[in-house]
Amino acid sequence: MEKIKQKVLVILGPTASGKSELGVRLAKKFNGEIISADSRQVYKGLDIGTGKITKHEMRGVPHHLLDVADPKRQFSVAQYKVFADKFVRYIVHKGKLPIIVGGAGFYIDALAGKVVLPNVPPNKLLRDGNY
After folding, report:
1. Which residues pair with 9 in a beta bridge?
2. What is the mean pLDDT of residues 45-50?
3. Where exactly are the structural domains of the chain?
4. pTM score, two decimals?
């Protein structure tokens, strides 16, 4: 049996290039919901420095994976992929178009399956430079 591929729209670009506004316009036009692919906007409280979209700017379009991580804790691309995969399935189940919006190409590559993420814990010695 052939696997059916789900359509997902991706908007990727540099900071302050209008990705969020375009995402909202396209979500309204094509009955979509947005999944953030920003490695900073996942953190709670990092609003101003990250250019996080406001409730007003969302214009009623559901946004996912904003404000989900504690900035005092590590949040990895592997964790992002698990959450994002669930939201893609959830949005599709609702009969809507998943729209991935952000500037973190690594997050998008991981979600698209272009990056293999090993299931190993972080090596504290390497992270501390004590190798």
Report:
1. 99
2. 78
3. 9-128
4. 0.86
